[in-house]
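# step 3/5: fold
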Amino acid sequence: MVKVSIIGATGYAGAQLLSILVRHPQAQITHITSESHTGKKISELYPHLRDVCDMTLESLADIEQIGADSDFVFIALPHGHAMDVGKKLDALPVRIIDLGADYRFNDTTVYEAWYHVAHIHPNAHRVYGLAEIYREDIRTAKIIGNAGCFTTASILALAPLVKHHLVDPNSIIVDAASGVSGAGRGLKLGNHFPELYDNFKAYNVAHHRHTPEIEQALADLSGEDIIINFTPHLVPMSRGILATCYATLNENVPVEMIDAAFSKTYAGEKFIRLLGRDAYPETKFVRGSNFCDIAWHIDERTRRVIILSAIDNLIKGAAGQAVQNFNIAAGFYESVGLDVVPMYP
């Protein structure tokens, strides 16, 4: 058994992570924390966990002891907090999987520019935690910066095209719509039911913080700098992301080459389901699972390829991806604890 702890277990991502790890046959949960609910049982806050997990929430005050008791520490805190935890655990052999943004960037000055927080752990040995792209780096990493939700859907949709240099890297546009759980559990006016219900809206146009994260991964794959337009939207559902990605095809690229790029890139990938050309992924068909469903369309008139990608933002976009990374780093099959059928309807 591998001993694991969850720092920040009471947010949506943290609670989802706990729900997965509690049934993971190789994981033993040793500590769960919450600064706002210290001393309470997690099942008091999330009644669906009654008799499944009734552990008591602890404080971060003794983080070194938590680290000493753990082989892996998952951090599910807002940006700006994980790097303090990571720095305090630096001297311990414990490995870290951060579900936030603090360890996602190769260049911490990019993080500082977009998140407006000084990075206090810039020299940490970290890798980007998107398993299908960075699997070999994840195996041995001290710190894994779990990929974000919008970024997971977008990068996986575009990876085959930029990797095989089939599109103009400066033509990429991403429109992505997310369920409201992506905004976290904190109370916000825009997420209030009367504001959200029967509504559809864009936000953070041209400056959403997931933009440089998508650009970083695509640049790694293509070998050249990439600048994209990314526009997020909020839809009145609890979970799910549908990303619609656009790119201009390079000259003399036949549609068969597009098909082959997706097939080759994702051959043997457990959690990538290629629906093929002209299909339509839907969030309902991945709900509650770690799957990413991808399809693509070719607009011959404009010479653009349109890729559609659907994930559950709390699973493949957060907690499920963290467990997939954990499985890789711990030497388990990637699907352990994640081999579930999507919930339907």
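# step 4/5: annotate
The chain has two domains: 2-124, 150-313.
# step 5/5: archive (pending)
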